[in-house]
Design a protein that fits this description.
The protein has two helices and twelve strands; from the N terminus they run E-E-E-E-E-E-E-H-E-E-H-E-E-E. The chain has 208 residues and is mainly beta. A six-stranded mixed β-sheet has the order 2-6-5-1-4-3, with no helix packed on it. A four-stranded antiparallel β-sheet has the order 8-9-7-10.
Length: 208
């Protein structure tokens, strides 16, 4: 069994390299690893680096350089039409606001059949009907565009120079020495910084 580990997009598919084809619905075309069987009987393992949407007309490349053509299989869909383009446009916005896959054409919208959405759509003044056709919804703006948040390029210049934290808190440890040289520490700072103040007083302290 051969393995297909790369995709050739529709525009670059060479007809002479096609040895078989496979028809898949929308869900079936969003794959990473699966064994598929072509219409001519060829079995192969699709093994991609990550789950990827295969579009109608794309192809997957086999180890010997030949390719298998991907076709969008017909499936049951909800067709949405309106009496004017503006109403259809507003309805498309409401559908998109629910993050529902939707195919947009000049005079109709198509989405997977859902009675709750169908009721909402009719409430917006559009008509709905059940049809069977290939489903090719709009893809996300960042799909397969190498969208990266670029954290590696932010150079967060926080400059945490941990070795030069001269806190400068003005601790004012007033060593008010009485005549018995007993230290009366006026600790005006509650910061437990544990600084080594290195007082080095060479006194013979009498501790009462």
């Amino acid at each position: 069994m051969q393995t297909a580990s790369s995709i050739t997009r529709k525009a670059a598919v060479k007809a002479e390299r096609i040895i078989d084809s496979v028809s898949l619905d929308h869900e079936g075309r969003h794959r990473r690893r699966i064994v598929l069987k072509g219409e001519k009987g060829l079995e192969f393992l699709l093994d991609l680096d990550k789950a990827t949407v295969l579009n109608d007309g794309d192809a997957v490349k086999l180890e010997d350089g030949s390719v298998v053509l991907i076709k969008a299989a017909p499936q049951t869909l909800l067709e949405v039409r309106a009496e004017n383009p503006l109403r259809l446009l507003k309805t498309a916005w409401h559908i998109g606001n629910r993050h529902t896959p939707c195919e947009i054409t000049p005079d109709a919208l198509y989405l997977e059949d859902d009675h709750v959405l169908a009721e909402m759509i009719r409430g917006l003044g559009c008509s709905t009907s059940i049809v069977s056709r290939p489903f090719q919804p709009e893809r996300g703006a960042y799909d397969d565009h190498g969208h990266s948040h670029g954290h590696h390029g932010h150079a967060h210049g926080h400059s945490h120079d941990h070795h030069d934290h001269s806190h400068n808190h003005s601790h004012s440890h007033h060593h008010t020495h009485d005549h018995n040289d007993a230290h009366v520490h006026d600790e005006n700072c509650n910061h437990d910084h544990d600084h080594d103040h290195g007082h080095g007083h060479a006194h013979s302290h009498k501790h009462d």
